[in-house]
Fold:
Amino acid sequence: MAMDFRDLKAAAKELVAPWDHQDLNALPDFKEMNPSAEAIAKLAYDRLSRRLDNAQTWVERVTVWENDRCWASYFDPEKRRA
Structure:
């Protein structure tokens, strides 16, 4: 296991709490961007990376699901590690 799942869950919960059951278009995070799955995936990736990345662990990819067939993923190809 790369990291304690409780830490990951807490970080994800803190990230999405301000967005949960809200009109995303009305929130400051999305004032300058369309809250598409692609934009949310990148924003989540950036914020989770800042919080969780260190020498031993890092965020590889974030995927946002709109429904069971529609999703968007974001990753930074320059940050990928072997």
Remarks:
- The chain has a mean pLDDT of 93.
